[in-house]
Amino acid sequence: MDSLEEKTVKRETIFDGKIIKLVVDDVVLPNGATSKREIVKHPGAVAVVAITPENKMVMVEQYRKPLEKAIVEIPAGKIEPDEAPELTAGRELEEETGYKTDDLKHLVSFYTSPGFADELLHIYLAGDLKKQANPLQADEDEFVNIVEVSLDEALQLIEEKVICDAKTVYAVQYWQLLEATR
């Protein structure tokens, strides 16, 4: 197969924010023509599938400004510079839900929107959850309600479009497969 690579000949940073950077690349296409690519640069993120001993999935309800509504999702967060994804996963789980674990298993990593972003999301399964009396504090601009739901309730929330993001739909389907094999 011929190369599909697009060679960057110029890059301009349009925005450099707290979470993302937006760049515009001038590229030479495989056929020699030129085009522009708008790219969101992201440091990467983690998400945690956390199921309690009572067989409830720990989630958070959070307002998502791009959607202009609150949704229910699994705990997640941005990887800090020089932080290993597994450490981020443990920190985010505790900050957002008050649960802690020493048992994290990497499930999968995937690019969330490779057509315009380089964000790589790492999903972990948390076992042996322990509720903390004095958990880590959430970020000052982060407001969440902790929600613990059964598998049937999670499936209903998907049906109602209250759970509507890819990582959480994945988490619920993973849980459904786990339950089917028991």
TrEMBL record:
A single BP term in Gene Ontology: nucleoside phosphate metabolic process
Gene Ontology cellular component terms for the protein in this record: cytosol
Organism: Listeria newyorkensis
Cofactor: Mg(2+)
Pfam families: NUDIX (PF00293)
Transmembrane segments: none
UniProt-recorded Gene Ontology molecular function terms: hydrolase activity
Keywords: Hydrolase
Hydrolase among keywords: yes
Gene3D superfamilies in alphabetical order: Nucleoside Triphosphate Pyrophosphohydrolase
InterPro entries the record matches: NUDIX_hydrolase-like_dom_sf, NUDIX_hydrolase_CS, NUDIX_hydrolase_dom
Domain Nudix hydrolase: 40-171
Protein name in UniProt: NUDIX hydrolase
